[in-house]
Amino acid sequence: MLKVGIPRALSYYQYFPAWKVFFEALGAEAVVSPLTNKAIFAAGNSRAVAETCLPVKLFFGHVISLADKCDYMFIPALRSLGRKAYYCSKFIGLPDMTRALVPECPPILDPEIDLNKGRRGLYQTIYSLGSHFSSDKNKIKKAVEQAEKAHLAYRKEMSDRGITPIQALDETHRSEDKSYLEPDVSRGLSIAVIGHQYVIYDDYVNHRLISRLRDMGVRVFTPEMAEQQALDVAMTKLGGAPHWSFEADIVGAGEYYLEGKVDGIISVAVFGCGPDSMMIDMVRHRARGFRTPFLHLSLDEHTSEGGVLTRLEAFLDMVKRRRRVCA
Ligand code: SF4
Asked: pLDDT tens digits for 128-185?
């Protein structure tokens, strides 16, 4: 059975269930890299130029960890999943960067996903991807349909049950990370954590941010716990038509949870990310209007666990004091 490597990084958190279903329906096995760890970071960091953002460095590390465990590596070139809304250029260049920086990588399956070219173009791309595994067009068509269903079910499950991708993925492929399965903290402070999935759900990058908040008795809300349509509406209200594909997760989620009257907002981004710096400023400004406490954590490979913890504790103290005063 052919094995397809799927790096546990970047768009993994958004699309893994669909990819897994697609490849399995075509008789291949999806092999996922381990949770991010020091060795994965060191490997990725050794190949990327210093200015590369941390999530992309980690992506290379995940590819390296899978290189000898699969026949193909799946690295889509994500360009656009909405009309005139684009992914960051790093996503578009990911297959080429990987070829250049990780020569030991097995052949890369690199479909270009660009909805601006219309659905017909997208299906042609996917059929050509499926043809690596089957020449039966009907089989590929069924695999596409099953993958679409799996993606919708994954998104719906998160918003219906108010769970994170990690919890939903745990049920998909038994992730070894159980730290998100926490007790009910419904009477604690309600804090929304906004940012890219590959930042807020990778514990190596954020020093276990969500688990820590839950340990502190906080009820955590993340973008996936809201319905996609509600995020889109909130995003349009605040920023108009999106320019970035992930604007709903930052601008939309910020506005949605501010209107939902959470006790505070924590935005998390990596140092040097251009798109995030603009979007986060919009939410920060809006939070000031709502008089809702706002904390921005900018992370990089040098961010210490102690530094994150100190800032979180100080922020939560401030939110608690404010809640007492306003009660
Ligand atoms: S959006 Fe920012 S963090 Fe994400 S890949 Fe692009 S530069 Fe890196």
From this structure: 999 999 999 999 999 999 999 999 999 999 999 999 999 998 865 444 444 444 434 4
Domain with residues 182-326, CATH architecture: 3-Layer(aba) Sandwich (3.40)
State which CATH number among 3.40.50.11890, 3.90.190.20, 3.60.20.10, 3.30.300.20 fits the domain covering 3-157: 3.40.50.11890
What is the pTM for the complete model shown? 0.91
* Residue 233, token pair as written in the block: 């509406």
d(CA 267, CA 278): 12
- Tell the residue nearest (CA) to atom 8 of ligand 1: 53
Round to whole Å and give the CA distance between 291 and 222.
20
Q: Is 126 helix (H, G, I), strand (E, B) or coil?
A: helix
Please choose from 80, 92, 196, 244 the residue to mutate so as to test ligand 1's pocket, defined by most ligand atoms within 8 A of CB. Answer: 196
> What does the block give as tokens for 10?
């970047």
